[in-house]
Batch of 2 targets.
Target 1
Amino acid sequence: MSALTERLLELLYPSRCVFCRNLMPPGVLCCEHCRRTLPYALPAAQNRQLPHIESCVSALRYEGAVRDSLLRYKFDSATSYAKIYGEILAKCIDENGISCDSITWIPLSRRRKWLRGYDQAKLIAEETSLRLGVPCVRLLDKIRNNPAQSSRGGPAARRANVADVYRCAAPDLTAGKRILLIDDIVTTGATLSAAASVLRKAGATAVVAATVARAGD
Ligand SMILES: [Zn+2]
């Protein structure tokens, strides 16, 4: 891209804070005010117990500007947001002392990825991987197109909705490994648990999980 094209793009699509949407200098994705005042998840809310998962940490609470930002990221093609989410998530993983051999993510089905054009959790996992210096590898495939979890009711309905949805895509890269599983949001944890169970059956020694935001409490 030429310098002129870059300058024109900046004028047409100025940088805005991914949370409050205030104008930012080129390349800056989050304002200082938001960095200080975001609804960070409290340490007491970490290390939540979910089946098949050693511990699950989340960086932020899913509310207000965080919720609006993640909705733009998912449904409005705001893919550049993955950079700041990855930065915030890597810091949270580091602060919680979580270690792993490799990083993977909760994949979209091929159809949904095709419709959306990108796999939102994959982009966050890649950004987190760059910051933690741990390889990011595709270990899961989504083999059944279940209705979106957000349209389901209680915990039992959510668990049933994600049963047999994932398959291990690379058993040789899974066996004997301690794996960090990444998603954008955790609500009941049914999706993370179902995916972690697949990785454990394929021989992963442990699965830890991390999400950008946590809903429901
Ligand atoms: Zn801001």
Target 2
Amino acid sequence: MVESLGFEEFCERFEQEDVCRAALYEARWPDGFRCPRCDDQHAYVIRSRKLPLYECSSCRHQTSHIAGTIFEGSRTPLRLWFQALYLHAQPGGISALRLASIIDTTYKTAWLICHKIRHAMREADKSELLTGLVRINWGQYGGPYNPTVYLHPQEHILLMAASIEETGELAQVKIKQVPQDHLNEGYIVSFGKRQFIKEHVAPDAYEVIVETRKFRANKFQPLFQMCKKLNCWLNFTFHGIGGKHLQAYLDQYCFGMNMQLRRQPILTKLLELSASTPTLTYPVLIRDKTARRKSRPLSFFRVRAAAS
Ligand SMILES: [Zn+2]
């Protein structure tokens, strides 16, 4: 029902913190309370504190409506979080800069909220493997105006993949940034291709068609077009994205697209995910995820690629 509300109506509906808390409780425990430790369904409500606590009647574990969610540890009021979720559920999403001006927070707070929401979207992507007929294409973000065989510093190689309907239309999509150690002079090595299939394609997929070379005419057109749209979205909405956090934006793009393909209500799903995904902290978010990979010897992967 919240899907049909305009932004102003939505802000009015979720203006009070207790209304947001009730909606969050409903999204987190749609069938009633469940203890996160022992799964018991009964709890006592402790109201002596500023915010209610739920104490499990079986194991005495105490939890709150935000413990174990992306809202945990945040000092931002829930009504502003809800506005951020609403704006992320709109076609095209929103940049941290615009969000900061709308909900009146600092840029850093808005940036962190955006990334926590993307983190919830990413968790949804992880649990859904591609099935049936799967097509995988080479793709790129950024890069030079005149393409060459050499990798430009601002060029990020991607693997664009989709489950395909019998009608030839896309059913589910995934886009992943290819790590440096799965590349050799800008080309995706066989090991990288196999690793992608292992991580993102269901073992019972009946056919997997892969084209990971850059200059090939037989790329699957719907994926090729999706790559173009993705580049436009990243450049138009966010004015360009660097390599470090690119994957989070790719996951956001796929989440929106998959919701659209399945005709699922995106805001309701986003609230459910936010209420069931443990938070991502700032130190973890800014940690250099590529540090470990960079330290691994490249030669190991080159030998593997040559041998396959
Ligand atoms: Zn319990």
